[in-house]
Amino acid sequence: MKQIHVDTIIEAVRNICQGANFDLGDDVQRALEESLQIEESSTGKMIIEQILENAEIASKQRVPMCQDTGVAVFFVELGQEAQVVGGDFAEAINEGVRQGYREGYLRKSMVNDPLFDRKNTEDNTPAIIHTRIVPGDRLKITVAPKGAGSENMSAIRMMKPADGLEGAKDFVVECVERSGGNPCPPVIVGVGIGGTFEKCAEIAKRALLRELGKHSADSRFVSLERELKEKINDLGIGPMGLGGRVTALAVHIESFPCHIGSLPVAVNIQCHAARHKSVVL
């Protein structure tokens, strides 16, 4: 059985926490450059150009592309033939976050209690960790720092099956329209359909990890993703909410089977930074 020491995990997490905040993904870079060709607003074009310039400066100077360096959200795929040794796996993730955020001068945004004293934990922990056990002996760790501006605009609705396709479409567009400029558009819209209350929210967030330009493997959802993107861009919210053609760079939908009496739909909105970085150990 392959063994992976927690020290290796700590180092890897430290590095990807910084990389996710410093380096805009190539897919997002391409999508922003392509959006310049279709943006009709001169203000919108200027904003997209500034976003691209900001990303270049962040990468070259190794500074965060956004001051809100987010909650450290992790998606882990742990091979069932791999063994974590030398300590606690979750604590290794958190120690990597501590080191990465401290050494990278990334803002610490986590408070220890959500309702009462709300004291900053001062190291951006605890991380949010979603773990799947998968075949093989690899450990894949993906960090997706999530800022409050976009996360606060996300929503879930437990719909009736009778609400159907049109109800789901209306809800997605409604969420983006309601959010306006708050999530720093142009955005990526992750949509989860099915499962249960918590499952559809998780797959909506996982949908944001998909490479921009790649559609769902289900042809029915491909056409729905394209339709929703067009409807959202017809809203006229535009870059940073100041009007224009490009409100969304992409709409990504993931689905899961659900109860006969239920139709859960979740919308998780991501800002233009779309930060995520992976490592395989």
What does this structure look like?
The relative contact order is 0.21. α2 (26-38) runs antiparallel to α3. The protein has helices at 6-22, 26-38, 42-61, 89-103, 148-151, 164-179, 197-207, 219-233; strands at residues 2-5, 73-79, 82-85, 128-134, 139-143, 155-159, 187-195, 248-258, 263-270, 277-280. Helices cover 40% and strands 23% of the residues. It has 2 domains: 2-19 and 65-145, no CATH class; 148-274. It is of the alpha/beta class. It contains 8 helices and 10 strands. The protein starts with a strand and ends with a strand. The strands form 3 sheets. The chain has a 4-stranded mixed sheet, with helices on one face. It is globular.
